[in-house]
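ERR on first pass: missing label on line 2. Operator R.T. fixed the label and resubmitted. Corrected input:
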Amino acid sequence: MSNNVHRYLPHTEEDIRKMLEVIGVKSLDDLYSEIPAELKLSHPLNLPKAKSEIEIRKVFNQLAKENKPLICFAGFGAYDHFTPSIIPYITSRSEFSTSYTPYQAEISQGTLMYVFEYQTMMTRLTGLDVSNASMYDGSTATAEAMMMCQAAAKKRNRVLASETLLPQVKEVLRTYAKFHGVDLVFVPEENGVTNRNVLTELLGNGDVAGVIMPQPNCYGIVEDLSGIADECHAQKSLLVLSGPASPLGVLKTPAEWGADIACGDAQSLGIPLSFGGPYIGYLCATSSLIRKMPGRIVGQTEDVEGHRTFVLTMQAREQHIRREKATSNICTAQGMMCLYVAAYLSLMGTEGLNKVNELSAAGAHYLHDALVETGRFADPFQKTFLNEFCLEYKGADLDALQKHCAEAGYLCGVKVSENRVVFAVTEQRSKEEIDEFVELVKNFG
Amino acid sequence: MNKVFYGKLIFECSSTGRRGYDLPENTFGKSLNDFIPATLQRQATLVLPEADEQTVARHYTNMSNNNFGVDTGFYPLGSCTMKYNPKINEEVAAHPAFTALHPAQPAETVQGALHLYDEVQRTLAEIAGMSAFTLNPYAGAHGELTGLMVIRSYHMSRGDEKRTKIIVPDSAHGTNPASAAVCGLQIVEVKSTPEGTIDVEALKPLLNDEVAGMMMTNPNTLGIFETKIPEIARLVHECGGLMYYDGANLNPMLGVCRPGDMGFDVMHINLHKTFSTPHGGGGPGSGPVGVRKGLEQFLPNPRVRKNDDGTYGVSSEPTALGSVSSFLGNYGIIIRAYAYLLSIGGDILPMVGKLSVLNANYVKEILKEYYQLPIDGLCKHEFVFDGLRPEFGGDHHDESHVTTLDVAKRILDYGFHAPTIYFPLLFHEALMIEPTETESKDTLDSFIEVLKNIAIEARDERDKVKNAPLTTPVRRNDDVKAVKDAIFVYNA
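pass 2 clean. output:
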């Protein structure tokens, strides 16, 4: 490539000459004449030269060869659910993908409408009144929920969070709490679930703004949350439930548990694993909390001709109006990922989501029982789970087993301690794949 | 774009009994009731759409036809750098050897993915003049927050606990003060001079041993380069603070000037602005954070590292500020940015910056006869008009004057996206234009003609502009009704 002509740059030399003339400068470099010379780069950047598409494909083919996708028996916040073929087709329509935040509603009804659909679907899944237009991921959505609790309580800084939340969620909570001035206290775990006695005791101090509980928890256990909402509300504390979105289709909903806020990752609703992102955080709440919500919200209105239309609304909460007094610094809505979720739930419907959960649970229980039957694993908790569960390895070296499985093409769960591992199964795993995996474990060593 | 409004929601395309999926048969012989006691199951009926696959395909296709993207037309949204989004980026990001990777896979099985992450970290460091980057932050505002956490971690590590103030210019993006507030910092605003740059004399008395640092973008939100940056950086450093660079306006600096060489210590880059990844209707973006030498240890976990033997690994450091993401950021976006970085290369990169500046100045020079240019002189990648000139209906004292909102809406009628409006807050009628380097002179000339026409209409046929848009799928919306009615979900 030469003469600074490039496929992404439409300027001819003649164009540049004419434009410089209008501006009244002699060269492109003169456009930077006000900048002190000592601030300008005096040497070319140490980077490779521009590549053609042919060369770029080769680079990526080589990188792809250095990766090895595995048959997935892991979850832990990222689930290998099925993405229907039309979803990437729809989301790659560039009218959607190359647009930005729908500031000009008259030419952005497409974006505004799918976000409105997404908000509606998330409120139906959680049972709560309102949803925002999404957050970055499950961890940051939970951190925003924590800050919402503090903001809603005004004079209380303490938020309780269960130790049975996913470790990555806990780590992000810790980080945000440290800088934002939240007194974050973790409620210990007992036999794989939250220690309710400690929770009751801590709540009893009367200084708690919110309680964050997982559902299901990091071991895949569906915790019995009976009575927690009443305990919270009696102490004027909010209850937040954090968990993956797909199980909301079949498990007792956050609203049914009495939660004020529901949040977590909605990656499990049709979004590919993609090595951890982009995903999407959901955040729903009761209507009394709407003015404390972070992020964008789409609302219904009318245009001057009386069409039902949609606009960004409730913006008096947001950073571009309120600056440092905003409810949050978030200006992203994960637009593309909202569209993934809306299209996914449109295709699957209630029945499809049920079947996804049923197949995943059936596969997970089948794997659970088969692994225990090998004699190499034991279930330390023996509690209710959906499609994810924790087992204790009875062998000496869990790392060696996981390595062995990876070499054979299987992702053998996620290691959570010296000898414990959390497995997950989705509808994508056939009985044959599970049998083969169990065989591999059985014959190891 | 289809100018006929489609207007239906998926709930209105639904018919009981239709379905849009097929799943394998349940061969395990057990159902949910065998695993989950009724007390833990959902009681409320879930109502979701019921639609066949083609209905869903058509619904979203029709909806997309009422949407305007960079591929539809010119999108001069100031401060957003709406450049062309190359398609090779999409092709490589869709490779199953990336999309099928679970974030918990052992490092040996994701060497290509980690290699790419590390290459992007290093490339950004070279472009920005920084020592190291993390790619974990998910967006620009998330990058700001992470960068401010780095600054606070630095002071805390020195036992300097009282530095809780951050200096932010009055022209800054709203996310700057908002991110600082989330990070637990108190905002101290510094004024701009009439020339639109930071008032150094006003800055001096604000500097003391409670200042954690200062946030700036350079060029600033008016598109003006802050030539006093070496002095500003020196003053802030002398008082013990660190300099934060908001990378929102990095595009014109590419290959010409580096934030690291201007004296900045911490910064973020918006991959969705400067490095061509699609804006996606508002996200997902990516906001990598870079630091100068001596601050690397504070970058968030998890970190991607190149080992001595040439392999790549993921680690967690005890000195890190903590974690700001579940995994390694918006990985799929990072892939796209890498494809762009390879496409542009070190040799073409300076042209990206220079042509973005050429385009902005060209539009500004011609249109300043019609629109009020509050601050004359060379701009960088963008500039701000303060509405129409008085002789073109823009006289602020006239109550029925044509506003920036009117102009923006009229632009839509001519097939372009509107510029950013009412930002920055320094002017009443701000109209902020950023053409980017990927627009041709032909496109700019058409846009200039349209803005001239609108100025003449504003003078001669005011109602036409006041009632705009007239030809879009829907007309002006009632924003007040949206707040009053508070309808955020569909109810049949």
